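Quick one, T. Sequence first:
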Amino acid sequence: MKTGLISLLLLIPFLTGCNEENCVPCSTPTDNRIDFEMNFLEYTDNNYFIDEVYADTSSELNLFNLYYGNIPAIVLTEYYVQDIEVYKAINILSQRSILGFAYINLPPRSAASKYPDSLRYNSDPIAGEEEAGRFELLSEGRDYLFHPETGYITFLFALHDQDIVAVAYKTQGQQGNLYYGEFSTDLIHNHDTVAVLKLVKPKFLQPLYKTAWKLKMKNIYQLNPNFGEATDIDLDIYLKKVDGTETNSINNVRLLELFGFDKLAENGAPVPDGKFDNRPGFTYEHRISEIIFPVLEPFGENIPQELTDYKYNWIYDTTKTFLSLPENYFIIKGKYQPTY
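Structure tokens:
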């Protein structure tokens, strides 16, 4: 009997997965997350500001950085978008379509005012600034996501070169509501058959169309469009040098911190901890798995001062077709858990 008991006691460490020294599991958990890697030229083409004020990077305004670059986020209520309708030009009749002229530089109006009829009939539109067509009303959540604090649209389908996008939207303003473009209800009440809209994307967008080109965002990167929502993100930024070496820090400071992605510890303390801050809605758009840099042109005019030697403005003033990697360039890579 004693012999059997002793044998059982000797077997306990093996049955429980422990050893004599530290009693730890013999097997380690596996990391089944998906790897991703992209270079800094591969920003997504799905995001557009609705107006130039939201793309402003001046120290006096910079609505985007106020929101994404601060904890807590700062929102200027006078620019908060209270209501919006998003339209895309189509070539067929639809119950949700209207005839319209869209203008990139469209002044605001009050609720009681109308746009002049001269804007409803434009026989000679300026390329890149004015577009005419039949526009179909899109559905939020199905066709696009909207970010009212910073005034930008994330499209949930691929836009083509020939696509035209226009909007009607309302803000609080400083002294009362301001309206840009006309909502579908305005047309019913005013008995107008042709709408005046705010142009967001003209057909065949190119850098030559300076205002429209500025509305196309180039600071957001999608992890993988083939999967659903990304969770449990482990992201890092590397500088790949001409000699083939990679580094994720400069002067002992992580690039992740320099680019504004590491401001908090995991417990929420306001100190960097060397890890990507998983903050849905701020560091990444979880609904479409996009990483959001807190500044516009993060590798150009707004690159961290410590990295100015590696500034590459070509990203922001050249179409992707004509872009090529420089000798030294940045890589974004890591792992994430997809939600299927």
